[in-house]
Amino acid sequence: MRRSAVLDRTMPGYPAPCHWRRVPATGQHYLDAGAGDPVLFPHGNPSWSYVWRKLVAQLSPHVRCLVPDLPGFGLSRHLRAASAPAALYRTRLDHLDALHRHLVGDRGLPERGWTFVVHDWGGPLGIAWSLRQPGVMARLVVCNTVAFPWPAGFRLPFSLRCIRDSTLVADAVHLTNGFARAAVRIGVHHRLPAAERRAFLRPFARRAERRAVTDAVRAIPRDTTDPAWKLLEPTRPGTGPESVPLLIGWGMRDPVFTPLVLAEWARRYPHAVIHRFPDAGHFVMEDAADEFGARVRDFLRGPPCP
Q1: How many angstroms separate the CA atoms of 290 and 297, rounded?
Q2: What are phi and psi of 84, to 5 degrees?
Q3: Whole-angstrom Cα distance, residue 254 to residue 144?
Q4: 305 within domain boundaries
Q5: Alpha helical stretches, state H, the chain
Q6: How many CA atoms lie within 13 A of 208 on its CB side?
């Protein structure tokens, strides 16, 4: 299908509407591009499915790319009110449940044998959901995220702590869209073109449509006792990241997920294949799109864990 001039101008590089879908039960928007083994791309905060557009373009000739917008983000329905952190996590996991049921039951995808490509907030959500649905995940690709309590010595940046811990600061950031505006500049080492920055910010243009951004920051776990970490504890052995082939692509200039977090991934999962990108920031899929995409493509050609 020919892309419209409006789409090319407002969301450059984003797949055409022929790839847009919605989950009937929830209204959640997702992209469905390519054919072959399913690959799920949960995004982080304050991004949406647009952040995966370059990888989708590289990988969709080889695999089936399934790229959801989490509730309240992107083209999915926006949340009407802030939720308590526990309810927030449950809502997102429930939406992933609904997406999986829809893709298996209505779209004919296999129930198991999926690859997960996770980033930022999509890391703990995707892995928590895989533990909720053991056997679905057959491979895992990790980029600049966490799936375990913060390692010793880690300290969340001051700006994020202020948003998380101060209602006054959170309200000001929500009013100005300050977090998303800063992320599209600080999160990359190589400056994004103006049209792509605008596309990133488009879903958060109105105040009523950006509540999920602030809520996600407010839900960042504080310490090892935070109940959110319980979601990342396997209910039985052999169901976590240690049980599947694991590729890590890490932007080394990330001001949030620092090399200290990467070192903890390496310590916990010594079987992981790690690629460090010294000139990439938080959005490694932007700064190192070509090389990272090639690494993921080659990884997907390997055999899954039995």
Answers
A1: 11
A2: -65, 150
A3: 8
A4: no
A5: 5-10, 53-59, 85-105, 122-132, 158-165, 167-176, 178-186, 194-201, 211-218, 259-268, 284-287, 289-300
A6: 2
Q: Domain containing 124 — which CATH number?
A: 3.40.50.1820
The 8-class DSSP code of residue 22 comes to: E
Return the axis-axis angle of helices 85-105 and 211-218, rounded to nearest 10°: 120
67: its two tokens:
């790229």
Give, in degrees to the nearest 5, the angle at Cα 60 between 59 and 61: 90
195 is a domain residue:
yes
Closest CA to 96 of 124, 58, 59, 120: 124
pLDDT digits (tens, 9 = 90+) for 207-253: 888 889 999 999 999 888 888 888 888 877 777 899 999 999 999 99
In a 3-state reduction of DSSP, which class is residue 111? coil
Span 96-139, pLDDT tens digits: 999 999 999 999 999 999 999 999 999 999 999 999 999 999 99
Q: Which residues contact 43 (CB under 8 A, 6 or more apart)?
A: 49, 51, 52, 67, 68, 69, 70, 73, 74, 119, 120, 121, 122
pTM over 0.70: yes
Judge whether 83 lies within some domain: yes
The residue range of the domain holding 275 is: 5-300
**DSSP conformational letter for 49:** G
Distance CA(232)–CA(240), nearest Å, equals 8
Residues with Cβ within 8 Å of 206's Cβ and at least 6 positions away in sequence, in order, are none
